[in-house]
Structures are given as C-alpha cells and as structure tokens.
Amino acid sequence: MSENESNGTTYKKKLVERRDEARVVRKIVLIAFIITLLLISGLIGGGYLYIKSALEPVDPTNKKEVNVTIPIGSSPTTIAKILEKNKIVKNAKVFRYYTKFKNESGFQAGEYKLNQAMTFDQIIESLKSGVIAKEVVFKITIPEGKQLDQIATIIAEKTGLKSKDIVVKLDDKSYIEELMTLYPNVLTEDILHEDIKHPLEGYLFPATYPFYKKDPTIEEVIEVMLSQTEKIIEKYQAEIGGNELVNSPHKLLTMASLIEEEATAKTDRENISSVFYNRIEKGMPLQTDPTVLYALGEHKDRVLYEHLEVNSPYNTYKIQGLPPGPIANAGEMSISAALHPAETDYLYFLAASNGQVFYSKTLEEHNVNKAKYITNED
C-alpha cells in the first residue's frame, strides 16, 4: 500500500471515529435535556399539586369543632401559624399568601370554634366576624424597662400562677423552640446563644393587656405579649434591614433595652442612642452601668468600681459592642431611638438625680460634669 493510500485510510478511520463520538455526545446531550425537562416538569407539577392541596380544607369530612384562641395584637403571620398549629390549615405560609393576594385584613382577637372542613374563605370570614365580645376579667400592665424576673412577678400577682413556675416555663428550651415556629420573624436562633441569660428577656413588650377569662395559662399570657412585640417589630422591619449596627430584631431589642435602662423622664433617647453608636464606631466599649447590674443579677443604688470587674458577657465595661441580648424590655420610643440616633459628636453622658442628662464630647468634659453634678450629690 502506498503512503497516500495509507494516509487516506487513516483519515477515513478518524472521520468515522469523530462521527461516532459526535453521535454519542448528541445522545448524551439529548438524554440530559430530557432528564432536566422531566425534573423541571416534576418540580412544577409537584409544586402545583402541593399548593393546590394546601389551599383545600384539611379534612372536608371532619366538622368537629376546635377551640382556637387568637390573642390581641396578633399579626396575620401569627394568626396563620396558630391556625396551622391547631390543624385548621395545612400550611401557614400558603394561608398568609392567600390573605395577602385577596387583600384580606381586619382579623379580630378572640376565642373561635373552627373545624378542619372549613375553606380558607370560611376561616377568613369567621376571623373577621369578631364573634367574641366578652367583658374584660382583668388586665396585666407591663411597664417599660422591666426584666423577665420582674415581669414574671407581675404576671403571678394577677393570675395566681407562681413566678418561679413562670420563669421555668420561659426558660424551657422545648417551649422556646415552639414559640420560634410561631414567631419566626421575631424569635431567631440568637435567643438560644449559650451566653443568653433568659431567651425571652426583652421580648415581652411593655403594654396593658386585657384578658377575658379568669385563669389563662402561662402560654396564653406570654403569647399575647409576643404577638404585640411582633406587631411592633414589623413596623420597623424595612429599617432594620438597612441598619448596619442593629440589623436584626435581636440586636434592635438589645440596643433598645440599653437606651430604655439609661433613659429618664427628661431624657432624649435619640441622644443616648447617638452616644452608643459613636462609641461603637470608634471601637470604644459602651460602658453602660445597667449592663453591670444585669450581670450582677441584683439592684444597687450606685455602681462602684469593684462592680465593673464582674466577669460576664453582659458587662459592657469589659466587652466590645452590644451584650449578647437585651437586659430588659423596651418601649416603642426606645426601639425607634435605637434605629434613629441623633447626629451628635457625644461620647459620654451622665444623669443627675433630678433626671437631667448631661452630654459631653470628651472625657475631660465628662469628668467636669461628673464632679459638678454627681460628686456633689454624695
């Protein structure tokens, strides 16, 4: 065989091999495309069937009445979670999106008798009816700046429950995890951090809460308060996302609690907030006395130098930035101030016994104010 014939034969072999390879590649691509198409179709079909199922009654044949309590101040998200928890709807998110799509609102607090055979529209109409209009049996007033132990005492005095039992319940991890599913936009994994003293510290909103029966359970009392916290936080949700320092509900409530504990009747909370922001920006510790008292776990008329040495993640004389969690509950004024600090150069402040607060930009100015307004009071 001549050299030219040999080269021609080799070329033909390679050409055949390339054609075979191309044919195999096309088959692989075609098979991969078909599989991908089937997967996408399956996902779309599965998603459609899932949503279609979630929109239907839980059990069209079961008309057994279920008592469902909607606490005062409950947000639509909370209501949806309560309905799912009581197995009145299959999926809380689907119910919530349905009410949004239909622009439904005006849900009323109260005790409702619902069943698993009800459609979404029937449930919505029931919740809007305001069928419960009972007289208030008693009220619980939770002031601003109260710590969880103090709130437990207030609840105990009004309900006959034991404050010790209330605190145990509020620290119970399984109950906390249950609440986290009910209030996912407020209660996050932050509250389970190992340094947190009480998971719900700072989360029981200060307000006056009416109750319509004589002996509510601990759960009913607590969930009314958490619903109010959720309602307040939702108002500031967009601003939280745009804030570098308090970019989560947990950090917001933590900062707000410091402001609340430092505030007096005559205090400009926005100025106090500005001091905290300015100190954090400069890498300075916050050095706020209420965190020392919280770390000590006891009230003192004066914080002494020896107290500042307490070894605690809450002691802002020793740590940088915010403590691991709130040290008390905060009212809406302090929550707003935590998001809207005044524009100042202040790095220090102190409060005189008459409630007046003095701000300063330097340590020298602060020491002068301390000598003038604090030392002279001793």
Automatic annotation (TrEMBL):
Concerning InterPro entries, the annotation shows:
MLTG-like (IPR003770)
Its localization reads: Cell membrane
Q: Which superkingdom heads the taxonomic lineage of this protein's source?
A: Bacteria
GO biological process terms held by the UniProt record: cell wall organization; peptidoglycan biosynthetic process
> Which enzyme type, at the first EC level?
lyase
Q: For this protein, what is the EC number?
A: 4.2.2.29
Q: Which reaction does it catalyse?
A: a peptidoglycan chain = a peptidoglycan chain with N-acetyl-1,6-anhydromuramyl-[peptide] at the reducing end + a peptidoglycan chain with N-acetylglucosamine at the non-reducing end
- Where, if anywhere, are coiled coils annotated? none
A GO CC term? Answer: plasma membrane
Tell me where it mainly resides. Answer: membrane
Question: What membrane topology is annotated for this entry?
Answer: Single-pass membrane protein
Q: Which GO terms describe its molecular function?
A: lytic endotransglycosylase activity
Q: Where is this site: Important for catalytic activity?
A: 262
* Keywords of this entry: Cell membrane, Cell wall biogenesis/degradation, Lyase, Membrane, Transmembrane, Transmembrane helix
Segments passing through the bilayer? 28-51
Q: Which NCBIfam families match?
A: endolytic transglycosylase MltG
Q: Which family does it belong to?
A: Belongs to the transglycosylase MltG family.
Functional note: Functions as a peptidoglycan terminase that cleaves nascent peptidoglycan strands endolytically to terminate their elongation.
PANTHER family in the record:
ENDOLYTIC MUREIN TRANSGLYCOSYLASE
Entry protein name: Endolytic murein transglycosylase
What gene name is listed for this protein? mltG
